[in-house]
Amino acid sequence: MAHCYYHALSSVRKWGGVPEDYLALHQWFDQSKAILADPRHRALRHHAEGIFMLEALFGATLLNADGSTVPVRLIGEQHVREDLGSIPSFADWARLITPQAWMLRGHPLDGAEAMTGETHDPTSAMTSGVLPPAQRAAGSVIIDLGRVPFGRKARAHSYRPTKTGMPSG
After folding, report:
1. Which residues pair with 167 in a beta bridge?
2. pTM value?
3. Separation of alpha carbons 136 and 117, rounded Å
4. Which residues, at least 6 apart from 126, have a Cβ–Cβ distance to it below 8 Å?
5. Cα separation, 75 vs 54, whole angstroms
6. From CA 75, how far away is CA 49, in angstroms rounded?
7. pLDDT digits over 27-81, tens only?
């Protein structure tokens, strides 16, 4: 869906009440648009763990304007399903992140390296075979979006993950 308000209207159709009963929950899911204004923002909260985070932040249930008690987790599941077609795990999103050399570096901040005499070669994982050759040779692209379309012609339903974890297009 294009805007949190439309998710809130969908919640009203499903559980009653008024859009304002649900708007803050749907806005929480889409706050990541402030840092990444394309569908990749969903990787931060649109997954099973994000739904449980929503429940931890807003409580197990809410009381809507009609006096009905609605489980917050169900509202979160509704939001993610409307955007993605299913509820992925965080691992489904993380599989699309190609490890880069800067992600593999470790730099002790407390002087532990000097005490142990150990040193860390940040390229060791890149050359030791820990990563597949295709990933070792990868450029600076961190998330492989495959066939995900962007721009005016992109449609919301184009971003549904498939069984392989790659977005359908």
Report:
1. 161
2. 0.63
3. 28
4. 101, 104, 136
5. 9
6. 14
7. 999 999 999 999 999 999 999 999 999 999 999 999 999 999 999 999 999 999 9
For the residues of 129-144, what is the DSSP string, one character each?
TSS-HHHHT--S--B-
Record the tokens describing residue 149, joined without a space: 């379309």
Residue 99 DSSP class: P
| CB-neighbour burial class of residue 54 (10 A; exposed 0-12, middle 13-18, buried 19+) | buried
Question: Rounded distance, CA 53 to CA 55, Å?
Answer: 5
Enumerate residues 6+ apart whose C-beta is below 8 A from 129.
Answer: none
| Cβ–Cβ < 8 Å for 104, 122 | yes
The phi and psi torsions of 167 (rounded to 5 degrees) equal -60, 145
In whole angstroms, how far apart are CA 153 and each of 7, 148, 149? 22, 11, 8
